[in-house]
């Protein structure tokens, strides 16, 4: 869904419900909340079951950045200072955006989209899911 391969309402509802259903245990729930939050950044509305998982989740997912760091990236994007925003993003992800809090990575993806960089924002969001780290 996040990769943009199939964004039909039916597919979103089916995949979202399946993920919500299997979001048992702290690690899986945190991963599901992160994924659904990233969907939201890309205007992919998670289904009701997914929103319920999001609303019930306690705690943040990942390491938090200073809010001023995040705001400086958003400010650079709004000022069309693409180079500054991108360099700040590269510095803060340290090669692994999956370690960042979902609220922070969502703001960073929004900043990239503000710059018209939808493909890089989507790629960053995919990396932020940490799909390669997920236990089978």
If you had to describe this structure to a student in words, what would you say it looks like?
With 136 residues, the protein is an all-alpha fold. The protein has helices at residues 9-22, 26-41, 48-56, 67-78, 82-93, 102-114, 118-128. It is globular. The relative contact order is 0.15.
Radius of gyration: 15 Å
* Alpha plus pi helix count: 7
What sequence of helices (H) and strands (E) makes up the elements? HHHHHHH
Which spans of ≥5 residues are poorly predicted at pLDDT below 50?
Answer: none
Which of globular, elongated, flat, extended, rod-shaped describes the shape?
Answer: globular
Give the structural class. mainly alpha
Mean pLDDT: 84
What does the main sheet amount to? none
Task: Describe the structure in brief.
By secondary structure, this protein is an all-alpha fold.
Task: Label this structure with key terms.
mainly alpha, 7 helices, 0% strand
What is the fold's blueprint, element by element?
Layout: H1 9-22, H2 26-41, H3 48-56, H4 67-78, H5 82-93, H6 102-114, H7 118-128
